[in-house]
Specification:
Blueprint: H1 12-20, H2 42-56, H3 65-79, H4 84-93, H5 95-105, H6 116-135, E1 142-147, H7 154-166, E2 174-181, H8 184-192, E3 194-196, H9 205-211, E4 212-214, E5 222-225, H10 227-232, E6 233-237, E7 251-256, H11 265-277, E8 279-287, E9 300-304, E10 307-310
Parallel strand pairs: 1-2, 1-7, 2-6, 7-8
Antiparallel strand pairs: 3-5, 4-5, 8-10, 9-10
Helix pairs in contact: 2-4, 4-5, 6-7
The chain binds S-adenosylmethionine.
Amino acid sequence: MSALRPNALDRDRRDRRQAGADARLPLHEQGAGSEIGQLIRDQEFAQFQALIHGEAGIWLAPVKRTLLVGRLSGRLRDLGLASFGEYYERVVADAAERARMLDHVTTNETHFFREPRHFEFLAEEVFPRWRAEAEEGGRPRRLRIWSAACSTGEEPYSLAMALLRTFPPGSGWDLEILATDLSTRVLDLAQKAVWPLEKSREIPEAELKAFMLRGIGPLQGTMKAGPEIRELVHFAHLNLNDAEYPAIGEFDLVFCRNVLIYFAAAAREQVVGHLLEHLAPSGYLFLGHAESLSGTAFPVRSVIPNIYAHRGARTGREAGR
Ligand SMILES: C[S@@+](CC[C@H](N)C(=O)[O-])C[C@H]1O[C@@H](n2cnc3c(N)ncnc32)[C@H](O)[C@@H]1O
């Protein structure tokens, strides 16, 4: 695909705003006291709050009342229901509707090469070191990455592009990216790997040229991930709030970015514990810009902001590289 514009865009400021307020609603409508917020009764809001927390770990503070109404009222309309109380009853009785409700409630915003520092760290420090170690026989030529809240796929495919720059096809490396999410809707989109062409602006020129295909005919105005990167990524449904995770094994890199900000504190702690169980001894855990582990008791140390290694693990920084 011919490149349109170089360099990833850093959307940190927009994300920060979104962590506190839904960008789809005008800001003056936010808050418990707004007119829209009154469309749901106190008791109904409390019921949804508890259900969503129990199912997904996501905590909707009272200020998110308007957001909840905004995201679910279309569903009430489609089902011909007159109140949130009726919708609550439906959701409790019907697992498929419960999943659809969570699809509507979750925030799925994502970008290619989001938080570029993370990708620079991989390309400049981690991948070259692991390649050198493998050449010296110090590690297998195998890398496993988990994108643990992958949304519509931009994160795992960015990782696939980053991997192939250092470990091109034919270099003898066994590469694998597992991409999971709670929402089956975003997983379906991620699997299709087709995005609006405007998204090409988020991808550095070299990666765009090497790995993306421009849509033609009915796909005009879109781009699609090329076969080299599609081959590396596979998808699965995984609720990070589950008490136990499936047997997915250990990963050299675990990305869990911009999801824990929506979680209640206890649920967040449980998830981080699980993520660390799935992180290889020499691996790295990547969290979002607003998701620091500083001040927690987890046995980790910060490598660069919001990237963590097991405490005691030896990485390139200690080795003076
Ligand atoms: C804001 S997006 C972040 C996507 C990507 N990690 C990034 O940083 O660009 C948050 C994603 O977390 C997912 N999510 C929310 N709750 C979840 C849960 N309990 N388990 C797994 N995924 C969840 C949402 O469906 C959504 O796709």
